[in-house]
Amino acid sequence: MSSVYEQLGGEPAINAAVDIFYRKVLADKYVIRFFEGVDMEKQAGKQKAFLTMVTGGPNSYTGKDMREGHRHLVAMGLDDSHFDHILCHLRSTLAELGVAQNLIDTVISVAESTRDDVLDR
Amino acid sequence: MPTIRFEGQDYFCAEDETLLDSLARHGVMLPSSCRAGACLTCMTRALKGTPPKSAQLGVKDTLAAQGYFLACLCKPVEDMEIGLASVSPRYTARLLGKELLNESIVRLRLDIPEGFTYRAGQFVNLIRASDELTRSYSLASIPADSYLELHIKKVPEGRMSTWVFDEIEVGDELSFFGPSGDCFYLPGSSERPLLLAGAGTGLAPLYGILRDALEQGHAGPIHLFHASLATAGLYLIDELRRLADAHEQFHYTPCVLHGDAPDGGMQGNIVDIPGQVLGSLSGYRVFLCGDPPIVNGLRQKSFLAGASMQDIHSDPFVFTPA
């Protein structure tokens, strides 16, 4: 069975998804402090890599990357509540793109599997 | 088997091997992260040879136009030379004109040196020959002009700008490297609206991009917002009004933070004004130039107002204090 990434339409679809997803994140006052002062283009690149990974597209991310990439944020207080907000934005982004519920569930379960790495525990 | 030249060495790339893997096999570790064309970490520039189109997926159009591509997606089909930057020759040009545009901004017009080509909106690095002091200035001219034009702001006790204001004279020879920068207009999709916004001498590249877009027949709306602290800091107002009269698709809005705005202008923070006037920026191509806080603020607001990240081009100026 093809991946959600392929079913969505591959790279161009992920590009569109990144714009929607990142806009939701930037508009969220609860998590915005973790994104202040970062280069928006680099951040969009990371989010594209993240969306590619959780939709099952080509990637080579490891738990170690997720852990090291977020450690400075954990030191700033990043916890489960912030992670939950990001999952919500991911769910609504996919829904906005018309992705079926069962596929959203698949994507969320992949994203969920990174929780302990992201929160460094 | 294509040959890849990097930093003076030749490397052979095997069939069906990516450039990133091939170089790594030879011990050359380019920075990389996702290795799947998403994160853009391994973006590299083709100085010679053409990367396959598939290696430029997700690369911003103005960067792709300059040969940038993703090493992790690139399976070379021909010999290439790659690197971070092409080495510019040092150009020398005669100063044709020097004129104040307002009390703190001077316009320089230079001869176009033999062999120098550029895209409107790019910048050059001007060099003071006596001590090699170097500063970046955007080109306000377009390639069809018979001169190169720079707008230089007087920085209090700034070494380069004081020299430019007080010492150089028409007829002098000036040196520079360049061009550089990826804030420029590309033809195609000429119906899409353009937003040009910036402050101070951020107008220089925007003026170039504006005239270039008009020259290339851009048909969609073009909105230029030029800001200064107060009216005295604005410049080229008459020229821009004339362009707006001559081209119905072009709209010019001078903006001031303090005091009364000129006719047709607005008072307020430039970071907020384009969104207030235009509403949704979905589908816009956006060009932002000037001080980094203003450019970064405008970039975020433009993105939140619906412009796609791929369509936002910016050139934050860094001012070197005295």
TrEMBL record, chain A:
Residues that bind heme: H70
CDD domains associated with the record: TrHb1_N (cd00454)
Keywords: Heme, Iron, Metal-binding, Oxygen transport, Transport
A Pfam family this chain is assigned to: Bac_globin
Protein name, per record: Group 1 truncated hemoglobin
InterPro entries per the UniProt record, alphabetical: Globin-like_sf, Globin/Proto, Globin_bac-like_CS, Hemoglobin_trunc, Hemoglobin_trunc_I
Cofactor: heme
Originating organism: Mariprofundus ferrooxydans PV-1
Similarity annotation: Belongs to the truncated hemoglobin family. Group I subfamily.
Top-rank taxon: Bacteria
Molecular function GO terms recorded: heme binding; metal ion binding; oxygen binding; oxygen carrier activity
Free-text remark on how the cofactor is bound: Binds 1 heme group per subunit.
TrEMBL record, chain B:
All residue ranges annotated as the FAD-binding FR-type domain in the record: 88-186
A GO MF label: oxidoreductase activity
2Fe-2S ferredoxin-type domain segment(s): 2-88
Cofactor(s) recorded in Swiss-Prot or TrEMBL: [2Fe-2S] cluster
Superkingdom, natural source: Bacteria
InterPro entries per record: 2Fe-2S_ferredoxin-like_sf, 2Fe-2S_ferredoxin-type, Beta-grasp_dom_sf, Cbr1-like_FAD-bd_dom, FAD-bd_FR_type, Flavoprot_Pyr_Nucl_cyt_Rdtase, FNR_nucleotide-bd, MRET
Stored Gene3D superfamilies: 3.10.20.30, Nucleotide-binding domain of ferredoxin-NADP reductase (FNR) module, Translation factors
Matching CDD domains: fer2 (cd00207), FNR_N-term_Iron_sulfur_binding (cd06194)
Pfam families noted in UniProt: FAD_binding_6, Fer2, NAD_binding_1
Transmembrane portions of the chain: none
Protein name, per record: Oxygenase, putative
Source organism of this protein record: Mariprofundus ferrooxydans PV-1
Lineage: Bacteria, Pseudomonadati, Pseudomonadota, Candidatius Mariprofundia, Mariprofundales
